[in-house]
Structure formats: C-alpha cells, structure tokens
Amino acid sequence: MSRSTWMLVEVLVGFLGVSVLRAEDDLRATVEALKKQVDALQSVRAENENIRRELEGMKSAAAPMASSAVDVALDSKYGPNANVTTKTGKLTVGLITQIWYYGFEHDTRGLFDAPGLGVRDTNATQDNNTFRIRRTELKFTYDLDENFTCFMMIDPARETSTGFPNLPYNQGSTKRANVLSPEFAVANKDGLTSNTGPVSQVQNGAFPSGGAKLLQDTYFNWHGCIPNHDFTIGQFSVLLGEEGLRADYELDFVERSMLGFQCATRDMGAIIHGSWWNCDGGDGVDFHYQYYMPALPDGRFQYWIAVLDGAGSYFDPGNQHNRPDTNNEKDINARMLVRPLWDRCAGHLEVGVSFDGGTKGESGSQDPLNQPLNNLNRPTHWAARGNAWLSYKFGDWFARGLWARSEWGYIRDQEAPGSVLAIFGNGVNAASPFVQAQGRNMTRSGGYAALGYNFGDCSFNNCLPCWVKKFELAGRWEEFQNVEVANAVDSTKTDLFYSQAWTAGVNYYIKGQNAKIQANYIFMNGPKGPSATAHSFHNVRDDAFALNFQIAF
Known about the structure:
The chain is α+β, with helices and mostly antiparallel strands. The chain has helices at 3-61, 69-75, 198-204, 258-263, 466-469, 532-535, and strands at 90-104, 130-143, 148-154, 186-187, 193-194, 215-223, 229-237, 266-278, 299-308, 331-343, 347-360, 381-393, 402-413, 442-454, 471-486, 494-511, 515-528, 544-552. β4 (186-187) and β5 (193-194) form a beta hairpin. The relative contact order is 0.12.
C-alpha cells in the first residue's frame, strides 16, 4: 500500500475518534442536564406538598369562607345527572305524563235506554272523540337518612271538572242508576228529583266520583332496623291484586282492565312489609308496584299486612282516600306473593293472593234520629274483596320475549240507597218504580288474561333491525260484572250482568318504559247473564280506539 493511502486511512481514523469522543461528551452533558431537571422537579414537588399541608391546616382552623359567585353558579347548574339539593338528606324527583287520544263507536242511546218504560239514557257525552290528559304525576322521594324515607305524589290531572268516559267500557266502571243521562230524573220518596248522570256532570261542571283527588300518595317509611322488614304509615295504594298495584308507566295496555280499575284505589293507614329470599336483581325485570317503594330488596317471598280506614264503598273505586273515616272500625288488608322461578334462564314466575275486608256503616242498627224514611236506617254490614293472580315472563330456556298474565277478583259490598235502577217491576223495597231504596249485600266478580311478545327481549333480537326491537304486541280478554239492576220481584236483591272486552295492542318503546307510544283497539261485548234478555238492554255500539303518549322519569 502506498504512503499516501496510509496517510488517508490515518486521517479518517483520527476523525472518527474525535467524533466519538465529542458524542460521548454530548451524551454525558445531556444526562447531567436531565439529572438537574429531575432534582428540580422533586424539589418543587416537595415544596408543593409542604404548601398543601399548610393550607389544610389553615382551612381546618379558619372559619368557612363565603361562596363566590362562581361557586353559586356551579351549585345551581341543571341538566342530566345534576343533583337536586336540600338542606339535609337526599331528594329525588320523578314525573309521569300520559296524553291520550281516543274515540268510541258512535251510538246516541245508552245501555238502559228504554223509552217505553220512561227511561232515557242517551249516552250523549260518553262516545265522543277527544284528547285527554290522563296523568301528570309528580313524585317526590326524600331520604332523610339510611332508615327514614318520605314519599309524596300529586296528580294535577285529577283536577278535571268533568267526567271522562272510562276505558275499556264507556258505560262506566259500574252501570247503574246514578250514571243515567239527565233526561231520566230519578224520583225520591219525598217527590224530589235529581240528575246525577254524565251529561249533567259535563253541563254543570260537577266532579265525578266524589270530587278531585289531587293528593294521591304521602307516607313515611322506616326501614333497615328490623331484619327483613319495613314499616309505612300515611296514604298509599291499597295492597290489592297485581295489575291494580302496577306502576302506571308499566301498564301493558293504555288502561287497566275492568278488574284492575276496581283495584287501583288508595286509603290511609299503616303497613308492615316483610321480604325474604332475595332476587338476583340484575336483569331489570322486577315489577314496580304502584308508588310503593320497598326499602328492602324485592324478595322472592313477600307479605304485607295493613290497617286501613276503609271509608266509603268498595263499589266506588278512587273515592276512599283523603277523607275522614265513616265509623270506628278499620279494614284489614293482606297481600302475599311468591316467585318460584326468578332468573334469566328459567324466566320470572310470580303467584300471589290479596284480601281486604272490614265493617261498613256507622255503629248501631239505625239512624240516631229514628227516622226510617230518610234512608239512613242502615245496619252495619261486612264487606270484603280479594284477588289471585299469576304472571310469567319466559326466559332463555323457552320463548324468551313472551309473557302472560292472568288475574281473578271479587268484591262484596252494598250499594248506596237510590243508586241501582229498578225499572222492570215495582219491587217490595223500591223508593219509586225507578230506583232501589235499600239493597242487600252482593258480590261482583271478574278477571282477565293477557298475552304479549316483546321483540326487543326475544332470544334472536340480534338478528332484527333496530326499529323492530322497539315493538311489542299484546292482547287481552276480560270480563267483569259491571251492570246492576234491581230484581223485578224483590228490589232488595240486585241482578248482576257482566260485560266482555277484547283488546288488541301495539306498544312502541322509544326509550324503554320511560318513553313509549301505545295503541289499542277494544272490542266490547254487551251485558250477559241469566236474565239479560228479559231486561231488554239496548245493544250499544261502543268499540273504542285509544292512543297513549307517555313520558316518565
């Protein structure tokens, strides 16, 4: 190799050595700089920790500082998941709004219309198409502490001053003399007449069923102290049946059945509630009973025992609450349920029974003034009502999405004097040829069976389009003894006739049970019974269509 070549190699090697030495020096300098920065950060962190401790000490020693305008603004924020503030405890606010549109098959004659017998029943106000604000329930739940809860619910929609017709039957929950049109003036013994029918209510602005009932529920609940039990006192739903107690926003149809309507009533009193064999509670299928919030987990075996005022007649649902008792006696109300199956695989099966009974009328056998002609000479009598039900929601083992419910119930009581029609004979106890003066105890009964299929809950819902999952199909058959006429031979006895209804329904769930639209078509089948033909009821055309628009939270 030539000398020049060696010289070139030596120059390159020297250059590389110098570069390596410089890179090593740069790296060493960088590492030293990073060490200094880490030391500085650690020093700042230690200083901040000392400052934080000093501030905490000052805060604990100093008096509370006044809130700034920013703090006040933040505390007053509103929107989803924002807190409702109270001085003590926790307040939860809820709302149910249901807006209806419905129409009946038009018929200008009512069920009792019999011009040849002097009875006019036009049905003039009961078959009109109309909008209706069915419910506007404002609910307030206040937890004072872990053992004491207060609940209140009001419904301003109850302040309506006219009587809307009932669903499913626009002839009334009970068809009797006091729901006649005013063309038929009922004559009393003293010769006076009165018009109390639905037309008179609309024209004169009278409240139906004894007046408006703005205050629905208000009660205190004590829990968490005695194992498996809680206690309630106040005004609440009578513990009767399954559909009657179901929360309004969870109804399968636009309105309850004829039996369920009779059971959806309230009273004042006290409850003992026990719960055992707790549900898994993880699949969100538990039934929410009407405004009663059990402080315990909903058990697979539960019982309730209540003592109630029991004012008024069992035949007049919705008129027992927020009023004084009519005697010194109290009703006993008991309810029990068992859930032998309660999981996602086997489904959810509930079986239950309930009972309510007590003495009606004032103590003693006659009016203190001893004036039998004033219709107050009424001895006390025993009244009772009861229900039995079965509800099953199918699970993964078979036909998930399918559900079935069935319920039967009875009511035994007396009607008030002058409220039952007596047009088919001058009975031995009739105040006139038209009304029953004093009736004996009678028992009305009925029931329903319902079946539905929820596409959003079916086992193959992953294969369905999103819009299909929001639909549920439902059907219901029901019958109830809701027509009363005094017996032609002895008007102290009451002949009872039952009506039937078939309902086809479609539910569209916008957001679960909270926001939904329901559409029902109701086929009515007129009064039936042993002597229905002899009474010559008018065959009223009163099929109905109803829509419900609902928001709840």
